[in-house]
Amino acid sequence: MGVDGRLRAVVGLAQAMAAACAPRDSVRAAARGARTALDGSFAAISAWERERGRLRVLVNEGERRTGEEEFPEDESYPVHDFPEITEFLHERWAGGGGPHAWVESAVGDRPGRRGEALRRRGRATCVVAPIVLSGRAWGELYVARDQGLPDFDEDDAEFATVLAAVVAAGLAQNERLAEARRLAFTDPLTGLANRRAVDMRLDEALEEHRRTGAVVSLVVCDLNGLKKVNDTLGHAMGDRLLERFGSVLSLCGAMLPGALVARLGGDEFCLVGVGPTADEVVRVTEELCARAAKLELGEGVACGVASTGDPIGLVKSSRRLFRLADAAQYKAKAARSAKPVVAGRDTAVVRLADAAAQEAPGERRRFRGRG
């Protein structure tokens, strides 16, 4: 492959990684692009897990051998089996040089297990390039050729170093995008989902409900006593109460498979359940109320439940489910109930929610001040 061909290969690799929709697609695109650029038979990308002292294989691409899965669940190797990785990523780099790829051969005498692995899998030669993100060793790019093909040489190692830098740039961009997506759907104080994530989940859940009849439940929670904590103990303690309740909500939400727990804003939280019965959701909400009452701060929580598993009528949109759960939560708060109020099981809640909808169609309503 000439210079122009290699330039096109670099551009193609970068474009393929940029077009990837998920981390798995991105590393596969990186491995495939590097293998193609280097005329390799096989390529792998591995991440260095420092806490475990291991290289964990993320993807195997190309002509795989027995036991080599495309996306292995737990294919990893102790770093001490490959001493050259620490030599290249620490000693030479720390001495002033940059991360540089190197070539291994099945007939070479270099220490370590690279040559043994090549022979065992019927490969003749490989090139290994460190992947560096934000100034730290992240992992490695590995490209091999089968026996009968030309061996890699120093020019290939130089090119592999360039490819690894392109891969690192792509991975860094994907990590930034993943972090941006995470922040867009996460409440920064509690780490729970936010209102945007709830709206998306409810829309998906109600579509599933219409298609399969799956039960969709919404629990709206309003912390009691947050203002008092803020006024008497300070906002730092108020934030602590919000975080503590968020942890309790997360713990209880885990009792319902696939549940989403979120902070809607201020002192208001919610839980979205898809699949579990209304009785299961109510039981978990009762547990939530009991645990919240035992927190060292605040005065417990008022919870309202609305579920398509109860007699609440047709639910065409998430707005109606929210209005029902809001109305139930309002009644629980007004009565200082130690247990959740459940729409449908309390018929007054349904009437209250539907009356609010007639006054302001299309809006989610708060019910404070209503009789």
Would you give an account of this structure?
The chain has helices at residues 3-19, 23-37, 83-94, 114-120, 154-184, 195-212, 226-233, 235-253, 278-293, 318-334, 347-359, and strands at residues 42-49, 54-62, 76-78, 102-105, 123-133, 136-146, 216-223, 260-265, 268-274, 301-307, 341-342. It has 371 residues and is α+β, with helices and mostly antiparallel strands. The strands form 2 sheets. Strands 3-2-1-6-5-4 form a 6-stranded antiparallel β-sheet, sandwiched between helices. A 5-stranded mixed β-sheet has the order 8-9-7-10-11, sandwiched between helices. The longest helix is centred in the middle third of the chain and has 31 residues, at 154-184. It is elongated. It starts with a helix and ends in a 12-residue tail after the last helix.
